[in-house]
């Protein structure tokens, strides 16, 4: 693959490749863990021109940052390193979570991430979820101080609502919004994407393959391994919804077969065609799937192609929510008003 295809996306003032690598599943949430293969996947991604690597302090918790830090240690200058803070997990029960965006915690979390990653700065530092109890002005103000100190280069938000984006951008430039965006998660298109573009904020879609569902590899709950949170927690993967959603994959696969590509590659190509300010981060811990995902960059889609895909997988056709009720309350987040 021509590496130049990876060098053409802008996230605010940050240049990244057209496709990054999400590292979450290397350490948690999806069944199976193989650190050696994960490191090899990161190295091959670098060899193939990938620059944007995404992690978070809550993945593991903490162990994913340590893994990524080891993998990039001798190639730091090739990496646009993104990590996240704000989701705080109880050490005694990691399933219990709170969200913090207060200034003291922002700085504490950054120091922890720098230490675990083994770096002196973070290229793109996101608030992982909006803290409803802390004005976004306080959170972004603390992040701006980290930028001034050289510990952070660019600021991002994840799953923020439109008004929060506006308030945040009034404090400091926001380089990127990371939110779920794929053929089966299109709710950000109505208000959030236009707002981000108005403000010059790039978009980093996570789960651009519908957490793997759009690849066609999962046809029943039995296909998920022990400990896989999709089958355990996500409504779209519960058996009744999953059966209904298989029709989406079949329609996508029929179009993909016409082009001699996989359903997943066609779904990922659709995301690539959302704009020059969009850099998806499909996640994988295996080199085989990394190669398959990168090959999607070779697929060119016309306006007619895009219409056929969207007609086959209409927005709103998916059965089930993205997250359980508590998780849905945390996305497209807004914060309380700034105190004067």
UniProtKB/TrEMBL annotation:
Keywords: Oxidoreductase. The keyword Metal-binding does not apply. The keyword Oxidoreductase applies. Gene3D superfamilies: NADP-dependent oxidoreductase domain (3.20.20.100). Pfam families: Aldo_ket_red (PF00248). InterPro entries: Aldo-Keto_reductase (IPR050791), NAD(P)_OxRdtase_dom_sf (IPR036812), NADP_OxRdtase_dom (IPR023210). Residues 20-312 form the NADP-dependent oxidoreductase domain. PANTHER family: AFLATOXIN B1 ALDEHYDE REDUCTASE, ALDO-KETO REDUCTASE YAKC [NADP(+)]. This is Oxidoreductase. It comes from Actinokineospora diospyrosa.
């Amino acid at each position: 693959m021509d590496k130049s295809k990876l060098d053409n996306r802008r996230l605010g003032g940050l240049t990244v490749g057209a496709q990054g690598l999400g590292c979450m599943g290397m350490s948690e949430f999806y069944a199976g863990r193989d650190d050696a293969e994960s490191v090899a996947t990161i190295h091959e991604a670098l060899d193939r021109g990938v620059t944007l690597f995404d992690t978070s302090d809550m993945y593991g918790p903490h162990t994913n940052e340590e893994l990524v830090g080891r993998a990039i240690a001798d190639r730091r200058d090739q990496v646009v390193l993104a990590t996240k803070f704000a989701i705080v997990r109880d050490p005694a029960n990691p399933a219990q979570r709170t969200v913090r965006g207060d200034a003291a915690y922002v700085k504490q979390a950054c120091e922890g991430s720098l230490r675990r990653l083994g770096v002196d700065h973070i290229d793109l530092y996101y608030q992982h979820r909006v803290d409803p109890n802390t004005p976004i002005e306080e959170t972004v103000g603390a992040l701006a101080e980290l930028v001034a100190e050289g510990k952070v280069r660019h600021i991002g938000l994840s799953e923020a609502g439109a008004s929060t984006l506006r308030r945040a951008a009034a404090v400091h430039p926001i380089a990127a919004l990371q939110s779920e965006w794929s053929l089966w998660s299109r709710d950000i298109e109505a208000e959030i994407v236009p707002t981000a573009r108005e403000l010059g904020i790039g978009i980093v879609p996570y789960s651009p393959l519908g957490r793997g569902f759009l690849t066609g590899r999962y046809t029943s709950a039995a296909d998920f391994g022990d400990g896989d949170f999709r089958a355990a927690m996500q409504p779209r993967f519960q058996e009744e919804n999953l059966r209904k959603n298989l029709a989406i994959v079949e329609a996508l696969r029929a179009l993909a077969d016409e082009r001699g590509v996989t359903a997943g590659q066609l779904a990922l190509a659709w995301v690539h065609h959302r704009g020059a300010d969009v850099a998806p981060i499909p996640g994988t811990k295996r080199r085989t799937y990394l190669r398959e995902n990168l090959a999607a960059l070779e697929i060119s889609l016309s306006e007619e192609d895009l219409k056929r895909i969207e007609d086959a997988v209409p927005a709103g056709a998916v059965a089930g929510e993205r997250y359980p009720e508590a998780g849905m309350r945390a996305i497209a987040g807004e914060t309380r008003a700034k105190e004067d």
